[in-house]
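Thread: Modeling a multi-component assembly for a lab meeting

Hi all, long-time lurker, first post. My supervisor asked me to bring a structural picture of a complex we are working on to next week's group meeting, and I have zero experience with this. I have the sequence lines for every component (670 residues in total). Could someone generate the structure of the whole assembly? Inputs are pasted exactly as I received them:
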Amino acid sequence: MTPPSATGAPGPAALLAFEQVSKVYAMGDNRVHALRDVSFTVAPGEFCAVMGASGSGKSTLLNIMGCLDRPDAGRYTLDGRDVGALDDTRLSRLRLRRLGFIFQSFNLIPQLSVERNIELPLFYLGWDSAHSRARARELAARVGLDARLTHRPSELSGGQQQRVAIARALANDPAIILADEPTGNLDSATGEQILGLLQTLNGDGRTIIMVTHETDVGRYANHHIHMRDGRIARETP
Amino acid sequence: MTPAPPDPQRFVPRLHAVGRNIRLGIENLWLHKLRSLLTMLGIVFGVGSVIAMLSVGEGASRDALNRIRRLGSHNIILSSVKPIDESQDSQRRRTAAYGLTYDDVRRIREGIPSVRRLAPAKLLRKPARVGRRTMEIRLAGVTPDWFDLVRRERIAGRLLTAEDEGGVKNAAVLTEHVARTLLAAGAILGRHVGVDGQFLEVVGIIRGEPERGGGLQTPDRANDVYAPLAFVRTRFGDVDMQMKAGEYSREEVELHQCIVEIDRIEHVEPAAAAIGRMLAETHKHDDTRIQVPLALLREARETKRTFNIVLGSIACISLLVGGIGIMNIMLASVTERTREIGIRRAIGATRRHIVLQFITETIVLSTIGGLLGIGLGLLIPWLITRLAGLPTVITAWSVALSLVISVGVGLVFGIYPAARAARLDPIRALRHE
Ligand SMILES: Nc1ncnc2c1ncn2[C@@H]1O[C@H](COP(=O)(O)OP(=O)(O)OP(=O)(O)O)[C@@H](O)[C@H]1O
Ligand SMILES: [Mg+2]
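Re: Modeling a multi-component assembly
Sure thing. I ran the full set together rather than chain by chain. Output:
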């Protein structure tokens, strides 16, 4: 994609980079430092796990990486572009073209069928219905749900819903998949399946960034970031 | 496993997104059928009133135009009316004499220069007979000019001529209805109709337009038989005996009616005023009436205005209340669907996409309401015509206008909820329960 900008301190290999990023939430009089001077880079093709205790700032970090939020201080660059300088519409476009989200609570739209949930990103990309339908079917087949196309999310098990969410996250062919505790609402066997699926996607060359607070889930990753009180406590490698 | 990247060739912008948004809107409204229906009611009644209002107005003016066309825009119609202020006693004992006189007609002809032609008429209720068939007719003694002034269509034979009048001939022109009732089939022209001991020879048949809207006493009825005025006057006289409520009443009326044709349209109303003054001089009692068909236009405008005020206010209030109701429901819907909005935003929908989605849904709601309202709007005029006897005409443009109004209401009252939806912070919206 776009080469990293000259000012971007991280090496040319970085897909995304945090430089001294801080995020502060004002709660009445006291201010909560959700992130304090966080710096790290993620290279293309990594499987990165963000771990840490509850309230340590993992979701905040992921939201900024996902262009849903902007840093209060510091710089976040994606594809070498400074995300903090982009307006709401540009951020939306960036999410639409480059990112795919997977949430702990699946976040499927309840009144839409499996097929139409998967098609959503394609709708915003302006695909016509025939092509988006074909693609939705192909993706549903990939996550093993081709027999459930017309079902509503409420008619599916948690694991199936999460697979629909993965199919939807893949529809726009994103470079980066961001997952916030994707196995948090699933039993361990189903969770394993989902993690296996993410690993396959990583094997295809997609960058995966996953938030989790279970240490054994972290073993699927090749890059670990441990958070504590809004700071990076430990990073491996 | 690598999926094809979004192909720019497949990019079909805006229009197709509008179609999808409409479909999405319909689906979402369908999820809450009852709620959507109740929300629409204001629009339904508002649009219904708009169409009803316009149909009554249109009906009134078309009706007025029709009547003017039928009665003639250049005509003034004078008629005799029985005065109501006469005491009961005198009425019972003596012959009641009232109404237009031959003298009035002469003075109008001589005294008002803008008068072109006059068509005086005597109108008598009589039983008519042909062989064993009988019917109640209205015998109209008219001059040849009458047919010209009222412009009625001749179906067979001829109309009355100056010779009929001058020679006091017993010629008669029948309306279609009378001809059919008395002389069901076979040769009609040349047959004789017995009226009160007199025999009239049928010389022609004209179309008898049924009277609409009532009120106007023109010799213009379905069961009319027309004969030369001179004949009717000499054979039947000016005194008319009628059996009424077990008593005979005697009335002396020289002329029941007179159509006055004026040379130019701008002279019609001044001439009517002059005739009014002239008649007031010689008629002590209020026993004549002057009608100006042209003035019907003004009456029509009055009717139109009354209905516009009544139905117009109902329409405005309904549309306002309906619009606010729609806005209220859409605000509730935005709150309910906060999470959905968050999901869409996370996936990459811009604020504009969200605005369009919710505006479209609101417009779909108001437009469906508008369509139902059009249904109601077709029903109300029908009822008005059935129950109040007012003519109504539904025009295509009033239906089109209603649709525009419905879309407009959706647009106006949809903007705020849609803006609220678009302003939501994606992260907070995603966390919303
Ligand atoms: N919108 C907000 N307003 C105020 N404070 C916030 C907001 N979002 C997060 N915080 C605070 O920021 C800190 C980090 O929150 P964050 O959600 O990133 O934690 P987390 O690591 O994801 O926790 P968990 O594992 O429980 O999801 C917390 O102290 C939280 O209370
Ligand atoms: Mg979290």
